[in-house]
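User: I'm curious what two different proteins look like when written out as structure tokens. Can you demonstrate?

Assistant: Sure. I'll show them one after the other, since each token string lines up with its own sequence. Here's the first protein:
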Amino acid sequence: MAKYEINYTCGHTSTVQLFGKCSERERKIEWMERQECPECRRKREAEEAVKVTEGLELPELEGSEKQVAWANCIRARFAEEINSNEKYQNGNPMKVLKSVTSAKTFIDMQDRNALQTIGYNTASAWIETGRYEGAYAWFSAQEQPNLMSLHKLAVCCEKTGRRDEAFCALRQAEDMVGDEPEKSLELRLLRLVRYRLEHPDYLSRDEYGSLLSDSFDRIRKELPSGFAIFHLPWMLEWYKATRQYKKACELLDEFPEKSM
């Protein structure tokens, strides 16, 4: 352990304490002296964040002064990535950026995976509100979709009449199911989409009702509530078709976020 004076490229200097082997310290010093000082870097990033987000009408962030400054930089990186990448624009995560006012939220999701999550959640919400073409645009643009993204893509294709593409997405997703596929909840969700595609009269088939009800019960027990809310319209559709209105009302009481 020793203290060293660092001469930054911006002309400022500071004394830092370094640990480790002498060779490691020397490499660290060499790297640091090719950088701006932390204060100048923060100032530059804040100025760049203002330029990137200018005209986007983003809300003021809430938090401490340091949190807000840091979060503004993170949000600017997200905005820049969204504006330069068509697949994010299709999912319209910019609207999500405009809805977040907590600086801590951006700090907690400060990597590019967060953009994928924002896009996925936005496109999933579009399915829930019947905006199937917008959701299809996002899910179909994914270069390496996971199993649940393919499930959502199949649903979009089902709703927009892209039957062959729906089957293709289902086959690709089914190949991703791991060990013990007979126990896989994900596979059951894929089977529900396949059943509807293969049987246009699915609402008159008890087999579909059993598969749907059993799957929905497992969703409520095994997955976060958002998954149940996503699949709620199909349960309500089944109850309505089979005149089980009391059960439909009970579901709506359980999930007040949705309505008939």
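Here's a second, unrelated protein for contrast:
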Amino acid sequence: MSAYDPSRNLGHKTHFTGQSIDIAYMGKNGQELRGNSAYSQADVGRSNQFLHLARERGFTNNYTYGNRFDNEKNTPEHNNHFHIGHPTDYRATEKEDPSAPILDINEYLRIVKTTEDYYKNQAKMEGKEYDSSNMVSGMRALYGYEGTVPSSVYGGDQWENMIPDAPNIAPPTAEQVPSIDRLFTMKKNEKGELVRGQARLIRLPNGELVDPGHLYTGIDSALNPDANWKLDAYGINNRDATTWSGDVGSAVVEHDKGLSAQQAMDRHAGIPDLNSDLDGYNLGSSYSGKRSLHDQLAKYYLPPDKRAVGASDYHSRYSTFAQNRGLGHKNGTLDDDAKDTIRSEVDDFAEAYGRRSSNIFSKGFGVIWSKYNEDSDGSKAMTDRFIDYLEDGLSNEPQTQP
């Protein structure tokens, strides 16, 4: 794979920084297609699969032509080839570039261990036995998934309604744990000061990405599974709502409001989000406050030679999640009951999220139902994509359990 004509650049500065690749369109047999009509002869399914894999790995600046492919950027100069691009210039290392959006899992675990030492010392100073469940709540707050401050995710007191029984644990400051800022991109504010930007994604040993904030909502809701009555009124399963059905349900509403299916999923339920949703659900299902958070994350994410033999880990993410959630499947295909469960849970959350403008999470059950339901275009489109994600994962696992 290279530029269409390797002897010249095609106008993209990032072709010379390792960020972008031009690739010939592929025919039905995988053959290279040439000429300005190549896009019209391309195998759409094969091309979409490639673009999907590229997006999973962080390539989001992608260009095609002809409105035939599952891609937002459509330009005529890409009629004879398509283009994938990564937003990060990898000529700069993570340490050299504080705006780099991805952190290696080993570096992430080192920061978690340092942060856990801080929480252990706090418990010791207070004469208490250390419970790593408290750190889970603190890390959830660090990533903004709590409702005691106006800037929390989705605003208001939504997260206090979703996980009301969790302890109110403050996250450490950069003064208390200097490396904590490494968990976020850094940007300059109007005064020229470096401040936190977005949470950095974590790259796993196999190259997959996870969004760590979602891990802690999944673990914390498993440890504190009772939701506020306002959510119970909608029939919401709390562990689902704080992980996968909350993300997919949010995408349903935004798609019905006008975003394309791909835009809605990328914004609310991208692959790193869904990976983390399932991992948080799985970690929460076996989490123990008597063991360190660092050790439980390391056991789940590090390669087999660095963890306990036979430990359940992210390589079996999909089958472990299906087992924990009670979703039946065989040969990589979810059964009808499992699909019905998924559609119902997504619909329940979308129903509540769709009434967000009336602050349903604060005001309680309303008398007028939202239009967002399992028959909406968004619900079908988003749940189908989530089901495809699960079934693809089940099919590609070394072993899947029915």
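A detail about the second structure: The chain has two domains: 13-85, 102-396.
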